[in-house]
Amino acid sequence: xxxxxxxxxxxxxxxxxxxxxxxxxxxxxxxxxxxxxxxxxxxxxxxxxxxxxxxxxxxxxxxxxxxxxxxxxxxxxxxxxxxxxxxxxxxxxxxxxxxxxxxxxxxxxxxxxxxxxxxxxxxxxxxxxxxxxxxxxxxxxxxxxxxxxxxxx
Length: 153
Prior knowledge:
Blueprint: H1 15-18, E1 27-28, H2 33-43, E2 47-51, E3 57-62, H3 63-71, H4 79-82, E4 90-91, H5 96-105, E5 110-114, E6 122-127, H6 128-151
Parallel strand pairs: 1-2, 4-5
Antiparallel strand pairs: 2-3, 5-6
Protein backbone atom coordinates (compact mmCIF):
# COMPACT_ATOMS: atom_id res chain seq x y z
CA UNK A 1 0.00 0.00 0.00
CA UNK A 2 1.36 3.41 -0.92
CA UNK A 3 -0.05 6.39 0.94
CA UNK A 4 0.33 9.74 -0.71
CA UNK A 5 -0.02 12.68 1.65
CA UNK A 6 -2.26 15.31 0.09
CA UNK A 7 -1.06 18.89 0.46
CA UNK A 8 -4.23 19.45 2.48
CA UNK A 9 -2.71 17.42 5.32
CA UNK A 10 0.64 19.15 5.36
CA UNK A 11 1.01 21.45 8.32
CA UNK A 12 0.25 21.20 11.97
CA UNK A 13 -2.53 18.60 12.32
CA UNK A 14 -1.70 16.08 15.03
CA UNK A 15 -2.74 12.50 15.65
CA UNK A 16 -4.85 13.59 18.62
CA UNK A 17 -6.86 16.00 16.45
CA UNK A 18 -8.14 13.25 14.18
CA UNK A 19 -8.27 10.25 16.50
CA UNK A 20 -11.46 8.80 17.86
CA UNK A 21 -11.72 8.71 21.64
CA UNK A 22 -12.05 5.13 22.79
CA UNK A 23 -13.25 5.18 26.40
CA UNK A 24 -16.19 2.87 25.74
CA UNK A 25 -14.58 0.99 22.86
CA UNK A 26 -11.90 -0.97 24.70
CA UNK A 27 -11.93 -4.60 25.77
CA UNK A 28 -9.99 -6.50 28.41
CA UNK A 29 -7.44 -9.07 27.26
CA UNK A 30 -9.08 -11.75 29.43
CA UNK A 31 -12.55 -11.19 27.90
CA UNK A 32 -14.07 -14.00 25.85
CA UNK A 33 -13.93 -13.65 22.08
CA UNK A 34 -17.74 -13.83 22.08
CA UNK A 35 -17.81 -10.48 23.91
CA UNK A 36 -15.46 -8.93 21.34
CA UNK A 37 -17.75 -10.14 18.58
CA UNK A 38 -20.80 -8.72 20.35
CA UNK A 39 -19.15 -5.31 20.84
CA UNK A 40 -17.98 -5.22 17.22
CA UNK A 41 -21.48 -6.10 15.99
CA UNK A 42 -23.21 -3.65 18.36
CA UNK A 43 -20.93 -0.67 17.70
CA UNK A 44 -19.97 -1.22 14.08
CA UNK A 45 -16.29 -0.74 14.99
CA UNK A 46 -14.12 -3.19 13.09
CA UNK A 47 -11.41 -3.24 15.74
CA UNK A 48 -11.03 -2.66 19.46
CA UNK A 49 -8.03 -1.71 21.59
CA UNK A 50 -7.22 -4.46 24.08
CA UNK A 51 -6.10 -3.49 27.59
CA UNK A 52 -4.69 -5.54 30.45
CA UNK A 53 -5.82 -5.52 34.10
CA UNK A 54 -3.90 -2.27 34.71
CA UNK A 55 -5.61 -0.54 31.80
CA UNK A 56 -2.39 -0.59 29.76
CA UNK A 57 -2.55 -1.13 26.01
CA UNK A 58 -1.99 -4.80 25.27
CA UNK A 59 -3.08 -5.16 21.64
CA UNK A 60 -5.81 -4.78 19.03
CA UNK A 61 -8.58 -7.26 18.23
CA UNK A 62 -10.26 -6.89 14.84
CA UNK A 63 -13.25 -8.42 13.15
CA UNK A 64 -10.81 -10.51 11.07
CA UNK A 65 -9.26 -11.95 14.24
CA UNK A 66 -12.67 -12.91 15.61
CA UNK A 67 -13.67 -14.35 12.23
CA UNK A 68 -10.48 -16.44 12.13
CA UNK A 69 -11.29 -17.81 15.61
CA UNK A 70 -14.80 -18.74 14.43
CA UNK A 71 -13.43 -20.52 11.35
CA UNK A 72 -11.02 -22.42 13.63
CA UNK A 73 -13.89 -23.29 16.01
CA UNK A 74 -12.11 -21.40 18.80
CA UNK A 75 -14.67 -18.77 19.78
CA UNK A 76 -14.44 -20.11 23.34
CA UNK A 77 -10.93 -18.62 23.74
CA UNK A 78 -10.06 -15.17 25.10
CA UNK A 79 -9.27 -11.93 23.33
CA UNK A 80 -5.60 -12.34 24.38
CA UNK A 81 -5.42 -15.57 22.37
CA UNK A 82 -6.25 -13.83 19.08
CA UNK A 83 -5.38 -10.14 19.39
CA UNK A 84 -2.40 -8.58 17.66
CA UNK A 85 0.22 -7.51 20.20
CA UNK A 86 3.00 -6.35 17.85
CA UNK A 87 1.54 -2.86 17.61
CA UNK A 88 2.47 0.22 15.68
CA UNK A 89 1.41 3.28 17.69
CA UNK A 90 1.65 7.05 17.44
CA UNK A 91 1.89 9.65 20.14
CA UNK A 92 -0.86 12.24 20.48
CA UNK A 93 1.61 14.92 19.35
CA UNK A 94 2.81 13.08 16.27
CA UNK A 95 1.94 14.69 12.97
CA UNK A 96 -0.80 13.43 10.74
CA UNK A 97 1.83 12.69 8.12
CA UNK A 98 3.61 10.41 10.58
CA UNK A 99 0.30 8.65 11.35
CA UNK A 100 -0.27 8.09 7.62
CA UNK A 101 3.23 6.64 7.31
CA UNK A 102 2.54 4.27 10.22
CA UNK A 103 -0.74 3.07 8.72
CA UNK A 104 1.01 2.37 5.42
CA UNK A 105 4.04 0.72 7.02
CA UNK A 106 2.21 -2.47 7.95
CA UNK A 107 -0.94 -1.89 5.90
CA UNK A 108 -3.02 -1.63 9.06
CA UNK A 109 -6.39 0.00 9.49
CA UNK A 110 -6.35 0.74 13.25
CA UNK A 111 -3.61 2.89 14.75
CA UNK A 112 -3.60 3.38 18.53
CA UNK A 113 -2.76 6.87 19.79
CA UNK A 114 -0.87 6.75 23.07
CA UNK A 115 0.01 9.30 25.72
CA UNK A 116 3.18 11.31 25.07
CA UNK A 117 4.73 10.26 28.39
CA UNK A 118 3.33 6.73 28.72
CA UNK A 119 3.25 4.60 25.56
CA UNK A 120 1.01 2.04 27.31
CA UNK A 121 -1.79 4.55 28.01
CA UNK A 122 -4.12 4.68 25.02
CA UNK A 123 -5.83 8.01 24.40
CA UNK A 124 -7.48 7.32 21.05
CA UNK A 125 -7.39 5.36 17.85
CA UNK A 126 -7.02 6.43 14.23
CA UNK A 127 -8.79 4.52 11.49
CA UNK A 128 -8.73 5.02 7.74
CA UNK A 129 -12.23 6.47 8.12
CA UNK A 130 -10.89 9.10 10.56
CA UNK A 131 -8.32 10.13 7.95
CA UNK A 132 -11.00 10.56 5.30
CA UNK A 133 -13.14 12.63 7.69
CA UNK A 134 -10.17 14.84 8.61
CA UNK A 135 -9.30 15.33 4.96
CA UNK A 136 -12.89 16.24 4.09
CA UNK A 137 -13.16 18.69 7.03
CA UNK A 138 -9.93 20.41 6.06
CA UNK A 139 -10.90 20.57 2.38
CA UNK A 140 -14.32 22.01 3.30
CA UNK A 141 -12.68 24.74 5.39
CA UNK A 142 -10.27 25.56 2.56
CA UNK A 143 -13.09 25.67 0.01
CA UNK A 144 -15.21 27.81 2.32
CA UNK A 145 -12.32 30.25 2.71
CA UNK A 146 -11.75 30.37 -1.07
CA UNK A 147 -15.48 31.01 -1.61
CA UNK A 148 -15.28 33.96 0.78
CA UNK A 149 -12.24 35.31 -1.06
CA UNK A 150 -14.03 35.07 -4.41
CA UNK A 151 -17.16 36.69 -2.98
CA UNK A 152 -15.16 39.68 -1.73
CA UNK A 153 -14.00 40.59 -5.23
